[in-house]
Structure formats: structure tokens, C-alpha cells
């Protein structure tokens, strides 16, 4: 069942989403060659808690950290640790928060120092694909209109969208109905209604869309070892343009 949120609930989600956005902004300031992903995790957790919120990911399904930190060929769910970032890397940071019983979820991929033009193009197209999906999150559209818009933009630019992991509904729980794939034909799935809240998150690969999970049972990597990027916003469906809840 897809649960529609009241204006009061959307206000709570807006507060949680604002902390997600501010956390990503704080991390962007310190992402540079030499910093470890574990240090980024500690900075994020401390910042989230200072805002009066809880890290939503820590302990979720047994996940051990407050952020997901996925470097280069890592797609999602990279566990922060001792790995030091190097010049030319890209790093996808996924952040979740809980405040007043409601969740926020957002992600962005950042350059580490100076990156290649090919990597920069991957980041740009992925962020643009997120925007194309959000444009379709309008009352009256079908859920797959979001999926199709993302896939079309990505593939028109020569990249591929991950099939094995998708976006999701969000609210009191981090993962609610419906699933929000980043691929598929338009005009299918439930009709979008005012008050639905979705975490839209294209995961875009430089090469093939095929992925695999490493032995830690969390970290997802591209099967061909090529780069991957990830951008995400939590949005609320409105009559007009969707409202992005994960903004500062």
C-alpha cells in the first residue's frame, strides 16, 4: 500500500530532508585526497546528531555505518573504513536521517580533486537524469513515467542504468512502497497522487548495467569495473512540480 502523507507529515519529512542536504554539504567541504571514508562517516554522524536527528542507516538491516561511501566502481552501499581517497577518484555518498519519526534520504557523487572529463560527464548526466525523473513526479502521471524519463536520458548519453537496485517510497520507514525503478516503459504502475513521497535515485554506470555484491554482503560494484555515479532526492508529489524535500 502506498501511504500518502498529510501536510504535517510532509513538514516533518522536510525537516529530516534538510538535515540530509546539509550533511552532504558538510561532507563536500572535506572530500579531498588523503581523507578516509571512515573519517567522512564520523563527520556525518556527528553532524546529524548535532542537528537533533539520528543516522537512519546505522543498524538498518544490520548496516554498520551512518553513510554509504562508494568509490569509483562501487555503485552503492560501500562501507566506510580505512580507504583513503585519491586524486581523480569519484565518491558517492548516501545519507539517511530520522527526525520526529520521519525519514529523509539523499545522495550525491563528488569529485576528489581533479577528475577526468569522462568521469565529470558521468556525474553530470546522472544528476541530470535525477532531474528528468523528478520532473515526472507529478500527480496524474504513472510511476513508470519517472523510470522511463531517467532511462531515456541516461541511455541517450551512452551510459546504462542499474537494474538490480531501485528507488523507493519513504516516510516513517526508510523503505516503503512503491519501488521506483530507473528503467522501463512509460505509462505503467500506480497513478501518482498528491502526498506520495518517493526517494528517486538513478544509479548510472559508465559501462554495462550489470553489478555484483562483494563478500562483505553490502558493497555493490560494477561487474566490468567501470565507474558508477549515484544521485538521489526525496520528493513529495504535488499537483504541479514535485517538491524536493532534501534541500538545505
UniProtKB/TrEMBL annotation:
One of its GO terms (molecular function) is metalloaminopeptidase activity. A divalent metal cation 2 binds at residues 105, 168, 201, 232. Its EC number is 3.4.11.18. Binds 2 divalent metal cations per subunit. Has a high-affinity and a low affinity metal-binding site. The true nature of the physiological cofactor is under debate. The enzyme is active with cobalt, zinc, manganese or divalent iron ions. Most likely, methionine aminopeptidases function as mononuclear Fe(2+)-metalloproteases under physiological conditions, and the catalytically relevant metal-binding site has been assigned to the histidine-containing high-affinity site. A divalent metal cation 1 binds at residues 94, 105, 232. The keyword Metal-binding applies. CDD domains: MetAP1. Its cofactor is Co(2+); Zn(2+); Mn(2+); Fe(2+). Keywords: Aminopeptidase, Hydrolase, Metal-binding, Protease. The keyword Metal-binding applies. One of its GO terms (biological process) is proteolysis. Residues 12-238 form the Peptidase M24 domain. Pfam families: Peptidase_M24. It catalyses: Release of N-terminal amino acids, preferentially methionine, from peptides and arylamides. Substrate binds at residues 77, 175. One of its GO terms (cellular component) is cytosol. Removes the N-terminal methionine from nascent proteins. The N-terminal methionine is often cleaved when the second residue in the primary sequence is small and uncharged (Met-Ala-, Cys, Gly, Pro, Ser, Thr, or Val). Requires deformylation of the N(alpha)-formylated initiator methionine before it can be hydrolyzed. Belongs to the peptidase M24A family. Methionine aminopeptidase type 1 subfamily. Monomer. This is Methionine aminopeptidase. It comes from Thermodesulfitimonas autotrophica. The gene is map.
